[in-house]
Amino acid sequence: MADNERDIVFSESVKAGKRIYYFDVKETRYGEKFLTITESKKIVEGDIVNPQFTFQKHKIFLYKEDYEKFVSALLKTISVAKGEAVEDVAIEESQSHGNSAEDVPYQETSINIDLDF
């Protein structure tokens, strides 16, 4: 088994048109788990008679100390994209941007999100 396959503990994929999203839990040689999210997009080049296929990949590495902040920001972003009011989304406020309350143009409701990883 190749080194990059050996460290995969769990894998889930989502097919979305020409894209596939891979959610992989990997383990370091020290036994610490982390998440990789990969977007793979099929690119067709050449002509109809002789098409050439390549895959463009983008990868995000997410470590356990950032899971809650990442999920919180993702849920908030998805809610806004769906047209929901941000104050209806129960999300813990992230301090990563260093914004004070007066800098934020909307009001947030805070709760804790418990994730078992």
Quick summary:
The chain is an alpha+beta fold and 117 residues long.
What does this structure look like?
The chain has two domains: 3-63, Roll (Nuclear Transport Factor 2, Chain: A), CATH 3.10.450.700; 66-103, no CATH class. It is 16% helix and 38% strand. It has two helices and four strands, in the order H-E-E-E-E-H. Strands 1-2-3-4 form a four-stranded antiparallel β-sheet.
SSE layout:
Blueprint: H1 3-6, E1 8-16, E2 19-27, E3 33-46, E4 51-63, H2 67-81
Antiparallel strand pairs: 1-2, 2-3, 3-4
pLDDT averaged over residues: 77
Give the structural class: alpha+beta
Biggest pleated-sheet summary: 4 strands, antiparallel
Q: Termini separation (Å)?
A: 25 Å
Run of helices and strands: HEEEEH
CATH topology of the largest domain: Nuclear Transport Factor 2, Chain: A
Biggest β-sheet: strands ordered side by side in the sheet: 1-2-3-4
Name the shape in a single word.
flat
How large is the count of helical segments? 2
Number of strands: 4
CATH architecture of the largest domain: Roll
Binned, the helix content reads 10-25%
Number of domains in the coordinates?
2
The low-confidence runs, each spanning 5 or more residues with pLDDT under 50, are 91-117
Radius of gyration: 19 Å
Strand content: 35-45%
